[in-house]
From TrEMBL:
Keywords: Cell cycle, Cell division, GTP-binding, Magnesium, Metal-binding, Nucleotide-binding, Septation. This is Probable GTP-binding protein EngB. The gene is engB. The keyword Magnesium applies. Necessary for normal cell division and for the maintenance of normal septation.
């Protein structure tokens, strides 16, 4: 699948402000600065669609984009921003939890992790919670171009090991670089397959 028309639709500060759940929806989440905006722009072939922010953690809104008038792509706020206040973090958690638990057309959540880092507790705990709530998710490794060839495989293997301490089966894993436009076909083909099911 190729995206030909991607357009910003609306920003919501509450789940009940989101557009009607009238088509399949795919949401993207990850810690601040993980490369979420860059990945969304790369998938949509549009360098300015999602803002790549210089102030991480600032956006606390659910952003909906219409893709080819067929499905919604959702940019969720980044989590785990150390400089956010306790109240901000609480509000963020409430917004995201409510969205994730009640959005009936959410087909799959893309959880982004920076391929350079060791498995982080905050990400693993978040994935665990998705399991508890029964929300389907996949993992997207970002910024793979920043790794040496030798590190690529070992970092992914380490991550899988950490996952297998909590999960019996591994989720689908995508390896991407927004810089090199890697992983786009794999992610879009996956979405196409789910849409056709
Ligand atoms: P967000 O806060 O998760 O939306 O992250 P951004 O997309 O704004 O990216 C954070 C920083 O990482 C920016 O400086 C990006 O240029 C950089 N970045 C994002 N994706 C990649 C990538 O695939 N490769 C490289 N080398 N840098 C990236």
């Amino acid at each position: 699948m190729r995206i030909t028309k991607a357009a910003f639709l609306t920003s919501s500060s509450k789940p009940n402000q989101c557009p009607d759940a009238d088509r399949p929806e795919y949401a993207f989440i990850g810690r601040s600065n993980v490369g979420k905006s860059s990945l969304i722009n790369m998938l949509c072939n549009n360098s300015t669609l999602a803002k790549t922010s210089s102030t991480p953690g600032k956006t606390q809104l659910i952003n909906h984009f219409t893709i080819d008038n067929q499905w919604y792509l959702v940019d969720l706020p980044g989590y785990g921003y150390a400089k956010a206040s306790k109240t901000q973090r609480k509000e963020f958690k409430l917004l995201i939890d409510n969205y994730l638990r009640h959005r009936s057309n959410l087909m799959c959540l893309f959880i982004l992790v920076d391929s350079r880092h060791k498995p982080q507790k905050v990400d693993l705990e978040f994935m665990h919670q998705m399991g508890v709530w029964g929300i389907p998710f996949v993992i997207v490794f970002t910024k793979m171009d920043k790794l040496k060839a030798s590190e690529k495989e070992s970092n992914i293997e380490n991550y899988k090991k950490a996952l297998l301490e909590d999960w019996e089966e591994l989720p689908e894993i995508f390896v991407t670089s927004a810089e090199k436009a890697e992983g786009r076909d794999e992610i879009l083909n996956f979405i196409e397959q789910v849409n056709e099911q």
